[in-house]
Amino acid sequence: MSLEFEMSLVGELSYFLGLQIRQMHDGIFITQAKYAKNLVKKFGLEKAKHCDTPMSTTLKLSKDASGTKRILRSPTSLRVKRIIRYVNGTSNYGIWYSFDTNASLVGFSDADWAGNCDDRKSTSGGCFFLGNNLVSWFCKKQNSISLSTAEAEYIAAGSGCTQLLWMKQMLVDYGFNQGTLTLFCDNMSAINISKNPVQHSRTKHIDIRYHFIRELVENKCILLEHVGTNDQLADLFTKPLDATRFKTLSRSIGICLVE
Predict the structure, then answer these.
(1) Which of 246, 202, 252 is nearest to 86 (CA)?
(2) Residues in domain Reverse transcriptase Ty1/copia-type (predicted)?
């Protein structure tokens, strides 16, 4: 790169755009400890009791009569403080990127069916790995109302396929060719819909942009594989989880504490 751009060698990278980077012999650990601690200090919660999760599983966000989110009407409420307390307890945690891995691209997609209390729209979630390393993730409210869990999962899989194809093209530009991409889904009905070439009454009302999954599966661009609910890593991005489940999935996607 020095032949094309004016560059200078200033030593091993340790801090970049708010990211603290530790380079080790077997991988790279990236954290935002400095930013997190400054955030906690700003709110004066350095000595507050830590929380295991950023959000309670019993908390339901809904609109009040005026149409304003209750969670936003009181920014100093216990709910917001809970998030800061969670950040305080996990400020030294980060993402681990191992050198000992391959360059295969895989993804996980999941959905929280009808999780929104106001309009009953579902939430799509997904995460994507290059080998064992987490490289991308998303959490997005779906645009349409799903009539079943299968529909919500199918729409989430459509979003996951779009992301996988985009990442595949990026890797090709860098010289890493990919074959058939695997997307893991924990709903067999959604997988069966993707393999059914007939537009029967159960699926024809789903927005057409999501039916391109069928073409991808037929052309062997995407392989939809079933994964057990306990091993569905994208569950972390769809809804609040209890502490045990939250910590298990966090470790599985590479979030850890490096001494």
Answers:
(1) 246
(2) 2-56
3-class DSSP state for residue 179? coil
Report whether 121 contacts 114 (CB < 8 A).
yes
Q: Largest Cα–Cα distance of the chain, in whole Å?
A: 63
Domain 102-254 annotated CATH 3.90.226.10: no
- For the record, the structure tokens of 115 come out as 């999780």
Q: Which of 202, 199, 198 is CA-nearest to residue 189? A: 202
CA nearest neighbour of 255 among 30, 95, 19: 95
Enumerate the domain spans of the chain: 15-93, 102-254
Structure tokens at 120: 């009953």
Which residues touch 165 (CB under 8 Å, ≥6 apart)? Answer: 181, 216, 221, 222
State which amino acid sits at residue 174.
Y
From first to last of its 259 residues, the chain has per-residue pLDDT tens of: 677 778 777 788 888 888 999 999 999 999 999 999 999 999 999 999 999 999 888 876 666 555 445 455 555 566 788 899 999 999 999 999 999 999 999 999 999 998 887 889 999 999 999 999 999 999 999 998 898 999 999 999 999 999 999 999 999 998 999 999 999 999 999 999 888 766 555 677 677 777 789 899 999 999 999 999 999 999 999 999 999 999 999 999 999 997 6
